[in-house]
Write a structure and sequence with these properties.
The complex is a heterodimer. By secondary structure, chain A is mainly alpha-helical. Chain A is built from 11 helices and no strands. Helices cover 72% and strands 0% of the residues of chain A. The chains are: A mainly alpha, B mainly alpha.
Chain lengths: 218, 216
């Protein structure tokens, strides 16, 4: 099987010459073959489309550095690169059926990563326009601690609680555990009995949904 | 291979992996949409017959060229829209409908310079031109909706550009269908009305289609 190249496999796979489970199995063997990293990733992704979890985790892991490079080229700050990586991995998961193994996996991934990087830059830009970073500005505001401000704070808190209540149960649980109760990931995992990865994804999605509801971000 | 901070997400996504049915090639999806347009054309041809259309085209070939340009624009814009719906494809695909559109606009404009009327036609007044506008917009709405629905299964990373292609394909398809029952000769009023209808369809798609195509 080691003689089978990625191209040969693509021809076989494209022509549906192999059954689904066998295709996934073959891909793992090809992936360890002496092919270029890009071809390996393409073969892994094709196998992932057929349901090969090992190949999928390999291609996602192998994509992280590529995504970071794309985001860096787009001008994403270093501290936000991981956000682009996570958003891109989630998008890749959702649209993995759009990848055509006859084409470059890296080009497909770079297009998605570039789009998510632009989304993040726009979202940061919008937030920066809305937010003031001067620590002294609060003191200069007339009546910043008066009754109307207190009322605004109460309204904000009420809006936040309403937005949290409207989240799906898994996301709400993640926010309550790690956001409101300030539990660590491990503590939250042991308290809820959920997998730490699932909690992290739920928290990430919940924060994104809350940003959208409270600030109108897409 | 990956950094530990992403490993949890990768594990979660791996755990949620299911086999997926690969998206058919863009040309194949465009062909499917064009078959729907062809089916509508068949219904209109059965209703109105082919003779009046062929008589118009024989008497004034510029009308036939304009229709050919509209059909070519329809096919190319549909192909471009479905191609732009796939990540990693070049934005240069948006230029694909240009030759067809130039033929369509050029032949329609040339028809306005003719000094004789095509057989079986008259010059459309304001009311008849308004009917053309309503026809193009009415047919464009379901055709755009169908294409947007199919495109939402893909991943248009340039939603507005893709939506413009959707609008162009739908408007050109509707104008092509109109040709089957269009008993008016090329004239400035008619040409302007068609241009206005196509412009409205493209603008509406660009304004709304972009949002509808976003599936995050």
């Amino acid at each position: 099987m080691s003689l089978l190249t990625a191209d040969t496999w693509r021809v076989l796979y494209g022509g549906f010459a192999l059954p689904l489970d066998r295709r996934a199995h073959v891909s793992a063997e090809i992936a360890s073959d002496d092919t270029s990293p890009e071809r390996r990733r393409a073969a892994w992704m094709a196998a992932a489309q057929a349901g090969d979890r090992v190949a999928y985790e390999r291609v996602l892991a192998g994509s992280v550095e590529l995504i970071r490079n794309v985001a860096r080229r787009q001008g994403v700050p270093m501290d936000a690169l991981d956000d682009v990586v996570q958003e891109t991995l989630l998008t890749v998961h959702r649209v993995r059926h759009t990848y055509d193994p006859a084409r470059s996996y890296d080009a497909w991934l770079a297009a998605i990563a570039g789009r998510r990087a632009i989304d993040l830059l726009r979202s940061h830009g919008r937030r920066q326009r809305r937010e003031t970073h001067d620590d002294l500005i609060l003191d200069q505001l007339a009546g910043h601690d008066d009754a109307s401000t207190a009322s605004e704070r109460a309204q904000d808190a009420s809006r936040l609680h309403a937005a949290i209540a409207g989240l799906p149960p898994g996301q709400r649980e993640a926010v309550e555990q790690m956001g409101l109760k300030e539990h660590s990931l491990a503590e939250a995992a042991s308290e809820t009995g959920r997998n730490a990865g699932a909690l992290k994804v739920n928290l990430h999605r919940a924060l994104k949904a809350l940003r959208g509801r409270l600030h109108g971000d897409s | 291979m990956s950094e530990p901070r992403h490993q949890a997400l990768i594990d979660t996504l791996g755990a949620g992996l299911t086999p997926v049915r690969r998206l058919p090639a863009p040309w194949l999806r465009a062909l499917g949409w064009l078959l729907v347009v062809a089916a509508i054309a068949v219904v209109l041809l059965v209703h109105y017959g082919t003779a009046p259309m062929l008589r118009r085209w024989t008497g004034a070939p510029d009308l036939a060229w304009a229709a050919a340009g509209a059909v070519l624009t329809t096919a190319c814009a549909a192909w471009a829209a479905f191609t732009l719906g796939v990540p990693g494809r070049s934005r240069a695909w948006a230029w694909l409908p240009l030759p067809g559109a130039l033929l369509w606009i050029g032949a329609s404009g040339f028809g306005c310079l003719r000094t004789w009327l095509a057989p079986g036609t008259s010059i459309a007044g304001i009311h008849q031109s308004a009917d053309c506008l309503v026809f193009i917009i009415s047919f464009s709405i379901p055709l755009s909706a169908l294409m947007i629905w199919w495109l939402r299964r893909a991943c248009p990373l340039r939603p507005v550009l893709t939506a413009i292609m959707v609008g162009l394909a739908s408007a050109a398809a509707s104008a092509s269908l109109l040709e089957i029952c269009h008993a008016y000769d090329a004239a400035a009023t008619d040409l302007l009305t068609h241009a206005l209808a196509v412009g409205i369809v493209i603008a509406a798609n660009a304004a709304m289609g972009g949002r509808l195509l976003l599936r995050r």
